[in-house]
Amino acid sequence: MQGLRIVFQDRLPPGLIPVALAQSQVPELAGKEGLIVLGDRPMNAEPPAHLLDDDITPATRLFVRNNGHPPSVEETDPAKWTLRIDGESCLRPRTFTLAQLQSEFPVHSLRLTIECGGNGRAEFNPPATGNQWTVGAVGCPEWTGVSLADVMNSCGISPTAKYIGYYGADRHLTGNPDRQAISRGVSIAKALEPESLLAFRMNGADIPLQNGHPLRLVCSGWPASVSGKWVKRIVIRDRIHDGEKMTGASYKIPKFPVQPGTEVPETDLAIIEAMPVKSLITAPRSGSEHPLKTPLELRGHAWAGDTKVADVWVSIDFGVTWQRASLSSPANRFAWQRWRLPVTFPTTGYYEAWVRAVDGLGRSQPMVVPGWNSQGYLNNACHRIALQIS
Ligand SMILES: Nc1nc2c(c(=O)[nH]1)N[C@H]1C(S)=C(S)[C@@H](COP(=O)(O)O)O[C@H]1N2
Ligand SMILES: [Mo]
């Protein structure tokens, strides 16, 4: 359909992507397969749940969340890439080449879940503005890199250090070179966890350009907005980092529950840290048809921010009864966990499968959308799929 004129272009609502384009003809999504485009300026795209069935999320199926314009291929040449570590609480600021990072520090490979803080936003009512993520803004690739703690320690961390902040090579949507698209960070304690990585490879290959090639931060368990892509500089701060999208209402939720639609003053908002427990049904595909006789294996993943998933429960009768699924241990801390359950259906007809994970502290996913907040963060309501048994 390339080259065709959109006849009623003047009537096309702003922000609506023509279906033909949304069906992945978008050049920035080369190498991504079956992702649904939520917006292309900047590019934001998520896979449907059934494409997230792999234990290790393939590059082709990892969501893309851009706040600005990504750097070009030429600008991300690994041979020319440098990372600067400085900030008020850095004792010996230094600039590293990628080769120096790779040879000076031990290299680790870890499966680390990243989930956008706004995953599930589409369900909030009154609706929240922003990308209308359904369930696919999450993935668990295997990341290879050096530990952020090793790199920061080699530059000397002052006792005054409280937070880190990242700066990436992407550009603000306005094109203004003095503004950042996003510049977030984490507490020093989170930054120094052994699983916080400066990653230069994903699934044994180059990180896809859209996901942060040639260097990105991965601080799993917190909203993925803290995992800076195309990272050029990390500041060790003596205060909570105040970069773009750290202030105002960004990535903050009310400190106490509020009536949906309430305007909450900034002083009553808190920065989101660990993400809540959540799960996905990745097989079978929602809407699929299956014969009555065979037990049908339902499966998916579950994850729980900074902690582990303890139990996963499945219901095929709208939550009246629940069966406990088998649950694997995470491959390493912060990797999502595989759950499986063979299910026998009593008769033919329409069913829904619902999945509900519970974390190690006994906190469960809610059945309905939890804690309304104006930006639409942290919807960890149970995932539901439709099944036809015939
Ligand atoms: N430099 C930079 N880093 C970034 C972003 C960005 O726009 N620019 N987006 C953040 C957000 S909000 C999310 S959810 C994740 C998305 O990572 P992904 O696109 O690799 O899935 O990257 C984070 N890191
Ligand atoms: Mo995000």
Question: How many helices?
Answer: 4
CATH class category name of the largest domain: Alpha Beta
Number of strands: 25
Percent of residues in helices: under 10%
Q: Could you say what the CATH architecture of the largest domain is?
A: Alpha-Beta Complex
Ligand types: ligand MTE, molybdenum atom
What is the count of distinct domains?
Answer: 2
Label the structural class: mainly beta
CA radius of gyration is 21 Å
Main β-sheet description: 5 strands, antiparallel
CATH superfamily of the largest domain: Oxidoreductase, molybdopterin-binding domain
Shape: globular
Mean residue pLDDT:
94
Summary keywords:
390 residues; Immunoglobulin-like; Sulfite Oxidase, Chain A, domain 2; five-stranded antiparallel beta sheet; five-stranded mixed beta sheet; 4 helices; 30% strand; globular; binds ligand MTE
Description:
The protein is mainly beta. It folds into two domains: 9-23 and 275-389, Immunoglobulin-like (Sandwich); 59-271, Oxidoreductase, molybdopterin-binding domain (Sulfite Oxidase, Chain A, domain 2, Alpha-Beta Complex), CATH 3.90.420.10. Helix content is 6%, strand content 30%. It has four helices and 25 strands. The protein has helices at 19-22, 98-104, 148-154, 188-191; strands at residues 36-40, 43-46, 64-65, 82-86, 94-97, 107-111, 114-115, 138-139, 142-147, 163-168, 197-202, 205-206, 216-218, 231-237, 252-254, 269-271, 278-283, 288-290, 296-303, 309-315, 323-324, 326-327, 337-343, 349-359, 383-389. The strands form seven sheets. Strands 6, 9, 11, 12 and 13 form a five-stranded antiparallel β-sheet that branches. It has a five-stranded mixed β-sheet with strand order 18-25-24-20-21, with no helix packed on it. The longest helix is centred in the N-terminal third of the chain and has 7 residues, at 98-104. The two termini are 38 Å apart. The structure holds ligand MTE and molybdenum atom. The site of molybdenum atom has 7 residues, from loops. Molybdenum atom (MO) binds at residues 65, 116-118, 223-225.
